[in-house]
Amino acid sequence: MPGIYPGHFRVTSNGTASAHGEAGATGAHGPEADKARVQVAIQAKQRDLNAKKAELDGVRVTQRDAQRRIAVLDSRRHDAMTRPARKDEAARDLLKVQDELDTAWRDKVHADDRVSTLELEVASLESDRLRYERQLAQLARERSGLDPAFRSAAVY
């Protein structure tokens, strides 16, 4: 990152935007530039948020599929356990179904973990986006307090 110079904008380690410039400066390094940068940051967060939500939807579909598969395999396991004839064949079927059931449960648990992780990431991105919007509003308030054109318009 380049050094800080008048009008330079950056996001600090705690996630807040800071502008280093002269109060009321205009042009590429003034409040309008700060506002534009924060708007770009908001748009980027919104894109990230939309991507995470789409990923979360996909993982939820996987999770539902795993739950359906578990129900089917539980039914097949029960059928294999209650089959009176051909004990050896039933035992093999039972082992096969049990292996598939274990895999399905593992997939479901993995999907549950992924859903939880993605929900946390979505919440974090939404929080970041809201913080940037608050910073944008703050920059607009600062600009209206510093710009004589805005001050005179507010008087009327």
How many beta strands in the DSSP annotation? 2
Question: Poorly predicted ranges (pLDDT <50, ≥5 residues)?
Answer: 1-9, 20-27
> How widely separated are the two ends?
43 Å
- SSE sequence, one letter per element: EEHHH
In which order are the strands of the major sheet placed? 1-2
What's the number of helices?
Answer: 3
Strand content: 5-15%
Region (Disordered): 1-34
Coiled coil: 115-142
Keywords: Coiled coil
Biased composition (Low complexity): 15-30
Which descriptors apply to this entry?
156 residues, mainly alpha
Describe this protein's structure.
With 156 residues, this protein is mainly alpha-helical. It has a two-stranded antiparallel sheet with strand order 1-2. The chain has one domain: Helix Hairpins (Orthogonal Bundle), CATH 1.10.287. 77% of the residues lie in helices and 5% in strands. A hairpin with a 5-residue loop joins strand 1 and strand 2. Keywords: Coiled coil.
Short description:
77% of the residues lie in helices and 5% in strands. With 156 residues, it is mostly helical. The chain has one domain (8-142): Helix Hairpins (Orthogonal Bundle).
